[in-house]
Amino acid sequence: MSRLLLPLLALCLLGACTPSDPTGLLMPTASTIEVDSDDTLDSIFLKAAHVVPTPNQYAALRNEFIAFIHFGPNTFTRMEWGTGMEDPQIFDLKNLDTDQWCRAMKAAGMKRVIFTAKHHDGFCLWQTRYTNHGIMSSSFQNGKGDVMRALAESCRKYDLQLGVYLSPADLYQIEHPEGLYGNLSKATERVIPRPVPGRPFQDTTTFRFKVDDYNEYFLNQLFELLTEYGPIHEVWLDGAHPKRKGGQQYDYLAWKELIQQLAPEAVVFGRQDVRWCGNEAGKTRDTEWNIIPYEEDPRQMNHFSDLTAEALGEREQLANGRYLHYQIAETNTSIREGWFYRDDTKQRVRSADDVYDMYERSVGGNSIFLLNIPPNREGRFSDEDVAVLEEVGKRIQQTYGADLLEGASGPAEVLDNDPATFQLLTKGDSAMILEAPEPITTNRFRIQEAITTHSERVEAHALYAWQNGQWEHLAAASNIGYQRILRFPEVTAQRFKLVVSAWRLPPAIAKVSAHYYRPRPPQLVISRDSTGQVHIQPKQHDFGWKPHGEDVAGNLNRGYAIHYTTDGSTPGEEAIRYSSPFMQSSGVVKARAIAAREQGSVAATVFGLLKTDWTVLRADSEEVGYEAALAFDGDPKTSWCPKPSPEPHYLTIDLGREHTLKGFAYTPPTDKSLSKLEGGQVETSLDGKYFMPGETFRFGNLMNDPTQRMHDFGQPVKARYLTINVHQGTGGGRAACMAEIDILAD
Questions:
Q1: What is the model's pTM?
Q2: Which helix (H) or strand (E) holds 485?
Q3: pLDDT tens across 26-85, in order?
Q4: Would you put residue 142 in left (φ > 0), alpha (ψ -120 to 50) or beta?
Q5: Of 296, 571, 652, 718, which cross-links 723 as Cys (Cβ 3.0–4.6 Å)?
Q6: Which one, of 589, 600, 596, lies nearest residue 536 by Cα?
Q7: Beta strands in 614-736 (DSSP E)
Q8: Residues 6 and 12: beta-carbon distance below 8 Å
Q9: SS3 content of the chain, % helix, strand, coil (to 5)
Q10: In Å, how far from its chain's centre is CA 262?
């Protein structure tokens, strides 16, 4: 076929393909196209420009934002991965409110939920016929409960699609003496589903497969899940293997045949339809192509490796494959630190800013966003999780609920909100101008290609606004695919120009729309290092699980500025603009972020003496990793914590020389698990031997508001040494941690 394509390719490269063929298609499209041995690089790229998603894949892409739910014994044991040998009674569920789950997911703008019917521990959350290791052996609803059924009914009520995660790994079947996983059984012909006396199926479909015991078990359970709970739109199959046994192999081709017949609308994650993005942190690639090269025919592959490279579908990769295949990226992460719920105190939750930024990066970067929300031990989503979901959904609706280009002039096909119509670009006309009826204020543009008919073709594009008699550059990116969201500093203009500067074949642009995201200037943190340099930066949300490294505040609020003062006045746009650290020996620094017309809250920090000469004279004790010197190292993320004991706790600091002290400031650790200083007494000394008792102090509400607190002395006192005696910590204890101590002096 490639020999027939080469003459047409030559015409295309000369820019003549569109006049000779108005559709812009030079060969039939397909979701998988084979690369012939005599294909040239150019003919491979031409083939790539005709690889399109299946109808199921396109429907999955249009869902954009979907949910994951991890629930099971781990929810009660507080483990991420179970052992498989947990007593089913550990699943001590008393209540279940799947309606609340669905209301929260709907409020977030999610379209589909994937439920973990069985995780790696093998515990089943539906009334399966093929094992007793599951909800039927728990106390929930006297063993008659079915979480999968409850969720399916709630999904129908709230118009959410349902998907299922049935872990191929199964520790119960591995560890149990009669377990089927890796039991070295021979592959023989089996009838699926295997009949079970007293539990007939309404669906009378049967299959015959030559499989071993574990694959039969897996197929039987797939049959139950795909026939007894309504339509299933996604089957999630990961590659996790907490433990292997007996050389067990998965017969995915048999699973695939069953899925395609019983769930004809479903896509399969981890196999030919949908692939893992390569991390669990919500990190996205700048360029995410869904046209992937394979050495084998992915339609016949039994195993799919994780694709984790930074680049997957660039031109240089395409040339290395024998098949070009459309495979969607799914960006997945959890709203909590971990996949399963543990608690509402130590297990931290992502901020709405973080989740919304992931939404725009993933959905606006040619992938699907899959966010896990783990129910708690009350069978509900926790209030903090729900609040984040509702806020994210509100922002999505406020930003993308209306198109600011409504009524604009330009190519009708990209403004009609119909994904089936498109504007085909050509070499001589690779730009389009869009003019609104009146000036609009925007900071977001959404662009879509007609991928179902013309594949993903754009390799580089840029957006401009007509300003002051010329085209001003707003944003640029590489590919588009299903969707690209361009984010840029706020601009008010009436005319905009989209320029496509590189492509694999003349692309078909299906949709262009303009939107406005209301800036929410970040809260700021002001700190000073040990050399006296003051740093001002956005406050980082306290979330330590699988960091993605993104500048969330900068992503959401392109073009925001930080302004600060050192004279105690409130900063505004006229104040000094922060660009780099600056020296500050003592006094108060105030700062605020300003984005477009929005001003953020004012942050203020009082700095005392420089700490370059400070040393620890003595401390009653210190924990490993929480040494005493960390109380004044200039880093509020580190802390001194004494060892628990009934003896009084104290810290004595040598300031290096004599000063006239006016007070001190205490910064508590933000970690909720660390006790904070609520009350105590200071002592001062000139020689480090004789200490004069000083004032007592008390701070309040530190657990809910762990911010810097100050205590002013009634009378200034001359001293070189300062002791802080701990009288009370949060929670009524006698120990307390100190993230940072500052000394106020003349």
A1: 0.89
A2: strand 484-503
A3: 999 999 999 999 999 999 999 999 999 999 999 999 999 999 999 999 999 999 889 999
A4: left
A5: 652
A6: 589
A7: 615-619, 649-667, 677-685, 692-698, 709-729
A8: no
A9: 20, 35, 45
A10: 32
